[in-house]
Amino acid sequence: MPEILTMAQIEAKFDSEWVLIEDPTTDETLEVRGGTVRWHAKDREEVYRHAVEVVYTGKMPQNAAIIL
From CA 51, how far away is CA 45, in angstroms rounded? Predict the structure, then answer.
């Protein structure tokens, strides 16, 4: 099971890296407070490539839009 980390733990463990966080926890102002690290790398583009691996298997709602 993936470990849920606080932002302080994420910043300490992945210093100077780009981090993709799954199921982020946020505060009342929607600032990310922690979550599960899905991917991390020094190269931002590498992290972005993994972010687009998300797929939706249901029928898209009529009022939804996909932005690439």
Answer: 10
Q: How is residue 29 annotated by DSSP? A: T
Give the separation between CA 11 and CA 17, rounded to whole angstroms. Answer: 8
Interacting residues of 62 by C-beta distance below 8 A, sequence separation 6+: none
Task: State the pLDDT confidence band at 58, using cuts at 50, 70 and 90.
Answer: confident
User: Is residue 4 within 8 Å of residue 35, measured between CB atoms?
Assistant: yes
Q: Which two tokens stand for residue 3?
A: 């470990």
Reported pTM = 0.73
Q: First CA to last CA across the chain, in angstroms? A: 31
Structure tokens at 14: 């992945």
By residue count, the chain amounts to 68
